[in-house]
Amino acid sequence: MAPTLATPEPSFALVEIDGNSLGVLARRAPPTLRGYFGDYRPAAAQAIGIGDSVQITVWEAASGGLFSAPVADRMSPGSRSAAIPDQMVGRDGSVTVPYAGRIQVAGRNQQEVESAIIERLRGKAIEPQVVVNVTRNITNAVTVTGEVSNGSRVPLTLGGDRIMDVIAAAGGYRSPVHETFVTLTRGNRTARAPIQALLVNPREDIYLRAGDILTVERTPQTFTVMGATGANAVVPFDARGITLEEAIGRSGGLTDSRADPDGVFILRYEPASLAREYPQVSPHLLALGLVPVAYHLNLREPAALFAARRFAIRDKDILYVSNAPFSDISKLMQLVGTVGQPAIQGVAVSRYLY
Questions:
Q1: Which of 204, 250, 309, 354 is the least buried, fewest Cβ under 10 Å from its Cβ?
Q2: Three-state SS across the chain?
Q3: Is pLDDT above 70 for 330?
């Protein structure tokens, strides 16, 4: 018996654009910032950390105490108080307060530090009262970089700050809205989203945490058009999203003389976790991690126009429209006519002369 030839494995998956594939794509939308990081709420109080700067003011109940002003100024307002100059919290997590010594402040909030200083001054100062202000907040801050007017470390307020609040504090983004993306890094986790998603859905404008890194990027979104369309080109998005129907229109539509309405394809790579939901995808393609998928649409069917309106184009997609079967024959006839035209003209001239 002659050996049988093995059937070659397909190099891509062919998927029809219909209700089933549209449902799969809708269910597998990319995770949102809120879905990835959750709805974090700011703490009721912020802890002071190493590197922060604090200012301490001490009051006493009567003149003549440790922190009173000189005798000549005792009748002036504030004569029973003293402001200790700004101090940066050292690596040991403490600052120095006269007559109280080194006070541990790192990991404590302002109220806790005030109580600790009062306890140290009790019996030394006259009924001391203390106010602690954080004048330079490094620990409770977010780093903002990228396409913003002033990249900086933005301190977080006690009321909490959302992504758009922090971007505004950094001077706002400089790139067009539809080309602007934000990347949030929190610990060892990172997620990315278009800025327009935050503007359209305020729930995506989540609260930030101390230590977060926010990167604003300008990323033009494009798709490529090839085949029997009005224009073969790289087409930029001018909005947050674009549908297949709009993509066909922006490419000049299908060329009537040579396009095959049954030959509209969108080519892209899909993650194996999504492609697995298509029954026609072979196991060897799923093993690639990123599966090359050709989505097919037959524009001869009226329902296909409604499907095209629901199918979202993604960044770096390829829109390909194949030639109609008779198009190649027409091209051949044009070629034959072009090649034979000089001979026909020569025969006509010779008849005229002789």
A1: 354
A2: CCCCCCCCCCCCEEEECCHHHHHHHHHCCCCCHHHHHCCCCCCCCCCCCCCCEEEEEEECCCCCCCCCCCHHHCCCCCCCEEEEEEEECCCCCEEEECCCEEEECCCCCHHHHHHHHHHHHECCECCCEEEEEEEECCCCEEEEEECECCCEEEECCCCCCEHHHHHHHCCCECCCHHHEEEEEEECCEEEEEEHHHHHHCHHHCCECCCCCEEEEEECCCEEEEEECECCCCEEECCCCCEEHHHHHHHCCCECCCCEEEEEEEEEEEEEHHHHCCCCCCCHHHHCCCEEEEEEEECCCCCHHHHHHHHCEECCCCEEEEEECHHHHHHHHHHHHHHHHHHHHHHHHHHHHHC
A3: no
Find the range with the poorest average confidence among 70-79, 150-159, 181-190, 317-326: 70-79
Is 336 a member of any domain? no
CA distances from 171 to 193, 194, 196, 216 (A): 20, 18, 17, 12
- Residue where a domain terminates, one of 185, 218, 251: 218
Q: How far is CA 195 from CA 148, 225, 289, in A?
A: 13, 26, 28
pLDDT at 121 over 50: yes
User: Distance between CA 318 and CA 288 in Å, rounded?
Assistant: 20
Domain identity same for 228 and 322: yes
> Among 102, 136, 170, where does a domain finish?
136
Number of domains in the chain: 3
Average pLDDT over every residue of 240-260: 87
User: Considering the domain boundaries, does residue 283 fall inside one?
Assistant: yes
pTM of the model: 0.70
Q: Are residue 316 and residue 240 in the same domain, yes or no?
A: yes
What does the pLDDT look like over 48-69, one tens digit per residue? 999 999 999 998 887 777 776 5
Range of the domain at 203: 140-218
